Amino acid sequence: MQRAWASPGEVPENTGVGRQIAALRSFVAGSITGAELESVWFAGRRLAMAQGERVRQPFERMLDDVFFILEDEYCGDPALRGPEDLSDGAMQVRLESELDRLAALDGPP
Fold this sequence. Notes:
Layout: H1 16-29, H2 34-50, H3 59-72, H4 88-104
């Protein structure tokens, strides 16, 4: 039986959730584009669902918040991006805040 993770520090890197966290960190650091984040994040999400990975609250809610930013507020294709959609820069600011919230679950460094 797989346990449910309570914080990012508990998540193995080779899991779907681990890949989501790594992609989020890479995007905030400027190593990947928003479109790449979108692709990697959702691939990690599909893997996590297929493997039955679980996270506990409030970790789950924070991952859901990132999901809704990517799903509802961002369009990875600039040709399709509307004026109400987040730019990569605006999304980076939003996701940096989410990453800080996730990091706080691990406690002080």
